[in-house]
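Lecture notes, part 5. Sequence design as translation. It can be helpful to think of inverse folding as translation between two languages: the language of shapes and the language of residues. The source text, in structure tokens, appears below.
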């Protein structure tokens, strides 16, 4: 489901504030979200093409029915559904990266974070600064101030002036149109060998180009379905060969068939 659909659902059970990033961060960050949960709430998140950094400044959240989320957490790209249990009065500030943006802040390959949620205190230099940021976020007078604090924190840590241009072009190529995406066509478009593109893409994005293309296609089909298309139209509109191919991909990602999944509470 797209961000607008998620926000419409989230506002029915939580208080949500959304804000675009500072212009200097726009090549790397899509948006900031502040979400407050006045009561206990479970939600599910479909595989997405954007890594997320989450900074809890009040209460806590349990991930996938198991461990507690770190106060400052980074989630790389995942190919399967993830679930959260938000405790009463949980409040969190989210930074949603562009598909190529998170690499600008991390020294290690994004592939290391594929399918995982990691504690940012173990990733970033000077973890004491994260403790100070947490205290500032908890004590801030309003959400606008919280976002400004996080922007300052990120601006001080951005390591490049722009994301990798070739990987950025490859991501844009995947996101354009709805036809079948062949890696051979992409390598000719980008001007890199398949092995060179694969290494570069995994480092910056966290997945192989083929797996990223599958996520783009799945998200597109979900958006079409959420906007009223039947499953056959959603599958063909997203570039699947047939409806069964879409159903199989969806079942691998979520553990259930799309018709059963969409009868349940919405996911983002």
């Amino acid at each position: 489901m797209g961000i607008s659909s998620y926000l419409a659902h989230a506002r029915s059970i939580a208080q949500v504030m959304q804000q675009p990033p500072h212009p200097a961060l726009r090549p790397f960050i899509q948006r900031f979200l502040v979400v407050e949960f006045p009561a206990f709430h479970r939600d599910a998140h479909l595989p997405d093409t954007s890594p997320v950094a989450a900074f809890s400044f009040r209460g806590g959240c349990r991930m996938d029915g198991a461990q507690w989320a770190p106060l400052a957490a980074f989630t790389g790209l995942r190919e399967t559904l993830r679930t959260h249990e938000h405790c009463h009065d949980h409040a969190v500030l989210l930074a949603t990266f562009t598909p190529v943006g998170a690499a600008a802040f991390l020294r290690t390959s994004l592939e290391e974070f594929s399918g995982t949620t990691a504690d940012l205190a173990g990733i970033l230099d000077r973890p004491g600064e994260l403790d100070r940021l947490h205290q500032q976020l908890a004590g801030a007078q309003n959400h606008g101030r919280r976002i400004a604090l996080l922007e300052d924190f990120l601006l001080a840590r951005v390591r490049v002036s722009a994301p990798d241009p070739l990987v950025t072009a490859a991501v844009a190529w995947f996101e354009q149109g709805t036809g079948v995406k062949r890696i051979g066509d992409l390598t000719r478009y980008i001007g890199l060998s398949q092995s060179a593109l694969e290494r570069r893409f995994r480092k910056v994005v966290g997945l192989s180009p083929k797996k990223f293309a599958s996520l783009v296609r799945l998200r597109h089909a979900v958006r079409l379905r959420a906007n009223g298309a039947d499953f056959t139209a959603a599958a063909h509109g997203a570039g699947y060969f047939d409806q069964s191919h879409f159903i199989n991909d969806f079942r691998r990602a979520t553990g259930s068939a799309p018709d059963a999944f969409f009868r349940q509470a919405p996911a983002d």
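The translated text above is only one of many valid answers, since several sequences can fold into similar shapes. The chain has two domains: 3-155, 165-262.
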